[in-house]
Design goal:
Strand content: 25-35%
CATH architecture: 3-Layer(aba) Sandwich
Largest sheet: 7 strands, mixed
CATH topology: Aminopeptidase
Radius of gyration: 15 Å
Helix content: 25-40%
Low-confidence stretches: none
Number of helices: 4
Bound molecules: coenzyme A
CATH class: Alpha Beta
């Protein structure tokens, strides 16, 4: 059994640990992820970021998703971060977190979901994860992150009934 719950301050330390353990993120990236978490946890009036955690049976936090409406757009949402604890990957938890976020975005009449990622070899499994979940590459910005490291923009579009386009 897996529960998906709104993130609360007691989850913060475990999510920080998951980000560090994942071996995927640089220190500046982890710092940005934590900044978004702190805005979500400690600024009750903000509406820019929504964060949910996946809690396994026994209360263990297995992963989290952070998304929000892209500023100055109508119905476009960014999924800013998704991560699953390395020990619990490939068990369907990432897929459930993503599907949960997509359902919430559809309820808010979201039309387009954008996910940005890096072209580095180490992100190839992550890219496969997005493709297996129905995301397509819409754009590629060469050398965006650093020379030889492109930004890949994945998107998923919904029609007005909330189905996939
Ligand atoms: C990407 C990530 C969130 C996926 O979570 P997960 O719980 O391992 O993924 P799931 O078990 O739900 O997998 C869903 C589908 O993606 C595929 N997939 C997941 N990880 C994969 C991998 N490493 N290589 C290839 N395919 C993969 C699964 O095979 C599955 O497809 P299937 O049902 O056809 O078998 C997780 O691997 C992760 O936290 N990675 C490190 C952090 C990261 O890259 N985050 C994204 C950038 S912000």
């Amino acid at each position: 059994m897996l529960n998906i719950l709104k993130m609360t301050p007691p989850h913060r330390a475990v999510v920080y640990e998951i980000l560090q353990q994942s071996d995927m993120f640089t220190l500046p990236e982890i710092n940005v992820a934590m900044e978004l978490i702190d805005v979500y946890l400690f600024n009750k009036d903000q509406r820019d970021y929504m964060i949910y955690v996946a809690v396994a049976e026994g209360g263990e936090v297995a992963g989290y998703i952070c998304y929000g409406p892209t500023p100055a757009t109508e119905g476009t949402y960014d999924i800013y971060w998704i991560a699953v604890s390395p020990a619990m990957q490939k068990k369907g938890i990432g897929r459930k977190l993503l599907a949960f976020g997509e359902d919430e975005i559809r309820k808010e009449k979201g039309r387009i979901i954008v996910i940005e990622t890096s072209s580095q070899q180490k992100y190839h499994p992550t890219q496969q994860f997005y493709q297996k979940n129905g995301y397509v590459i819409e754009a590629r910005l060469k050398d965006f992150y650093r020379p030889g490291d492109d930004k890949i923009v994945f998107i998923k579009r919904f029609n007005s009934n909330g189905g996939m386009k």
